[in-house]
Amino acid sequence: xxxxxxxxxxxxxxxxxxxxxxxxxxxxxxxxxxxxxxxxxxxxxxxxxxxxxxxxxxxxxxxxxxxxxxxxxxxxxxxxxxxxxxxxxxxxxxxxxxxxxxxxxxxxxxxxxxxxxxxxxxxxxxxxxxxxxxxxxxxxxxxxxxxxxxxxxxxxxxxxxxxxxxxxxxxxxxxxxxxxxxxxxxxxxxxxxxxxxxxxxxxxxxxxxxxxxxxxxxxxxxxxxxxxxxxxxxxxxxxxxxxxxxxxxxxxxxxxxxxxxxxxxxxxxxxxxxxxxxxxxxxxxxxxxxxxxxxxxxxxxxxxxxxxxxxxxxxxxxxxxxxxxxxxxxxxxxxxxxxxxxxxxxxxxxxxxxxxxxxxxxxxxxxxxxxxxxxxxxxxxxxxxxxxxxxxxxxxxxxxxxxxxxxxxxxxxxxxxxxx
Length: 420
Ligand SMILES: Cc1cc2nc3c(=O)[nH]c(=O)nc-3n(C[C@H](O)[C@H](O)[C@H](O)COP(=O)(O)OP(=O)(O)OC[C@H]3O[C@@H](n4cnc5c(N)ncnc54)[C@H](O)[C@@H]3O)c2cc1C
Known about the structure:
By secondary structure, the chain is an alpha+beta fold. It folds into two domains: about 10-200 and about 365-420, FAD/NAD(P)-binding domain (3-Layer(bba) Sandwich); about 205-355, no CATH class. The chain contains 13 helices and 19 strands. α1 runs parallel beside α5, α1 (about 20-30) packs parallel to α13 (about 400-420) and α9 crosses α12. The longest helix is centred in the C-terminal third of the chain and has 17 residues, at about 400-420. The two termini are about 20 Å apart. The protein binds flavin-adenine dinucleotide. Flavin-adenine dinucleotide binds near residues 18, 58, 176 and 362.
């Protein structure tokens, strides 16, 4: 039945997944005039968002656009249009308009000043309500309904079908699956002939062959530089901290490179992490200082001298690694033993044998291939009226607010495109 002249039916948009991308996608489509229903499998929205930034929610990053792209493992430039449509400034204004003042902190990370992750989710819910988005909780979508190459509806777990004009998929990656993101949307897309790029963990703790980190688990080696070596190649991180864990290492420096390490290991390469405990000094300077201190204090035990190089708690482990008794007197040290200490201070070497599994990655690498998605609209190049957003796409970034920004930007652009 056709509508009377001058009366237009609102475009009916279904958004699947109520995380960062889905909530923003629903807000965007609704604020651009669509009738939107948001389907979330959990009984709350934004379960993963609640975990972000250790509960403080690092909503975005205020670095320049060019630096922004660099922080994506690869494929960052795919986000060019999405970031133009909804930038980090837009994210900040969005939350400030909801009374969540933001502040730019260390490394340009943007956090709510006085609020936390639950307030961020509440703010998104308020805007969803203001825009009359209908939210359906406990609704796990199983499949999409496609006719003549166009998405026309969705299938629920119980077999029920519902129909719409456009579908926005926002089901997230496949890590931290307890939050609801278990890769459903990626599977749905794959069934509809979208290419799936192999799923791997990123921002994930790495496992070492050496067992000593277990003894000091939870301890941070601070102000160190980490270098990963694989084959003849090197990847040097900035200066920061390495966290020792029950079976390996984590912390910002290691997390940032972990996705690449996972890929090197998958290719069968041997990977070593070298920790420079004294990045502010050259090897020669470290050697000279060590030599001076040993010479000036021949009656002191070596352990007392080494406390000026690293925290005492690390002493037993370090001395074991260099195969020396910490009770030895400085005056009895031989040159080759001093060299061993100097080398280990500049390059304490660990062999990386693996990573924790996909579910332990803060983000998922891989997902729906970007070749199948139009970056100007987020629409599928395979199925019309189907849009992709957020972490379910083959896009992932370093820590610092980049992943949430990608989710917000792509969600916004998908919602806008679906409305047109
Ligand atoms: C511990 C942790 C800390 C993090 N901290 C930060 C941070 O501070 N800053 C940052 O930028 N990034 C951070 N991230 C990454 C960031 O949270 C994600 O990249 C981002 O949430 C991805 O958004 P999304 O909407 O694509 O997916 P999600 O937020 O994962 O949302 C997907 C939603 O879809 C729902 N869903 C899945 N399948 C179905 C289905 N079949 N039917 C209906 N609903 C479904 C899920 O239940 C979920 O609610 C962190 C991640 C983790 C795990």
